[in-house]
Amino acid sequence: MTLSNDDLMHALGGTMTVPFHATGVSIDTRTLQPGDLFVALQTATGDGHEHVAAALARGAAGAMVHRQHDLPDDAPLVVVGDTLAGLTALGAYARSRFTGSVAAVTGSVGKTTTKEMLRLVLSASGRTSAAVASYNNHWGVPLTLARMPPDDDYAVVEIGMNNSGEIEPLAMLASPDVAVVTNVESAHLGRLGSLEAIADEKASIAKGVMQGGAIVLPQDSPFFDRLRAAAGSLRCEAFGSGNLLSVDEGEAGSDVAARIGGRPVRFRLAAPGRHMVANALCALTAAHALGADVEAGARALAGFAPVAGRGSRQPIQGGRATLLDESYNASAASVRAALGVLALTPARRRVAVLGDMLELGDHSRAEHEALAPAARGSADLVHTCGRWMRFLHEALPDDRRGLHEPDSAALAAALPATLRDGDAVLVKGSLGSRMRLVVDALTAMPGHG
Ligand SMILES: Nc1ncnc2c1ncn2[C@@H]1O[C@H](COP(=O)(O)OP(=O)(O)O)[C@@H](O)[C@H]1O
Ligand SMILES: [Mg+2]
User: Fold this and answer.
1) What is the CATH number of the domain that holds 14?
2) pTM value?
3) Beta partners for 216?
4) 429 C-beta closer than 6 A to ligand 1
5) Closest listed ligand to the CA of 113
6) 101 close to ligand 1 (CB < 6 Angstrom)
7) Are residue 278 and residue 177 in the same domain, yes or no?
8) Whose CA is closest to 227, among 404, 63, 347, 107?
9) What is the pLDDT of residues 291-307, one digit of tens each?
10) Buried (b) or exposed (e) across 347-375, using 16+ Cβ within 10 A?
11) Measured distance CA(19)–CA(37) in Å, rounded
């Protein structure tokens, strides 16, 4: 990717101290590559302007700033009114010159997983770039766009939200050829208030779709009709159980036979659980909507591996027990999905260790209690911590009810002594519930192997 001096001036209209061109874009000196344009973003966690000198020392071609301080006169800078607006302008410029097709993925859960699957699937048809990690917000989306190699065939963008109104402007910026809604679930219910409001927010991605583009929607969602209505006259492709011919689920993954765009495909997915099958069908349907080679894409899915911290599996207690690490985050849908994977895991005893699901507002108690049937169905024993998980603890039958502690530190201290040989242990909770402490306690045990 190259941003010439002219590109930068054209996109940004600011002033440049010294002419330069960049071969990439970075907002973080720790991952900066030589030749990158360093964008000094000001966020809640810090001010990139303090790292400009370090960025240049690490080989940045230049820096985009809205404030110049403590820098030599000959430092290569492009000075703009506001660096976030500048990054957004750069993203818009990169999108306008991109000659390939853009897919944009939103939804309550499974965005990053589906984005990574699409990266693989589309790579079987042409040169493809995709967002890093979960870069899906007001800086993540423009950064992803700004980094797209202009002559690639495909780019995959992830679009997220915490509050209503956030998706539409990002969708307009990305102007996808194909927009994808993975599902509508209760994540962020506290802020949005109702599942209908969440569905409408996800559906607003349709407003950014290019003329002649398409939207890919989850046919098994109770909100399918609502999503479809919001998509207006856009071409719509549905994915879900209607695609499935057969699925053979195992502890390490699934063998799937499906029909995508009327043609049969078969693939092996090395990530267990029905939710992973749904994400794969979503990615293949999106590839079909983009006119990519679906059969080659399905073959490429064999190379998919679960994203770190979300379902990785490791032996503990010298291999006598197994840990399913889902400590990265949790919403009701992803807890149910993880319990489904626990149920598929061979074990003498299945243990679920659950911390609070956050950001559910007035729905918190009900959402936690409602996990009881799934927890009972998948786990022999359920340990919990946190204010809201107490309601699940109380909703469980006596023989499934394990420890309950006020927080993850207390549970991490109490849990290891209760483990037995042959246990499969699932650890899951919202990031703020800090279930990582439980994972650390389990993996630090003597004999961890
Ligand atoms: N389709 C799905 N339904 C339910 N849970 C899912 C689905 N896809 C992924 N998950 C689970 O949700 C969590 C977040 O997955 P991720 O792909 O990072 O989603 P997002 O980017 O939307 O936050 C993980 O625990 C993952 O296993
Ligand atoms: Mg994500």
Assistant:
1) 3.40.1390.10
2) 0.96
3) 180, 237
4) no
5) 1
6) no
7) yes
8) 107
9) 999 999 999 999 998 76
10) beebbbbbbbbbbbeebbeebbebbbebb
11) 12
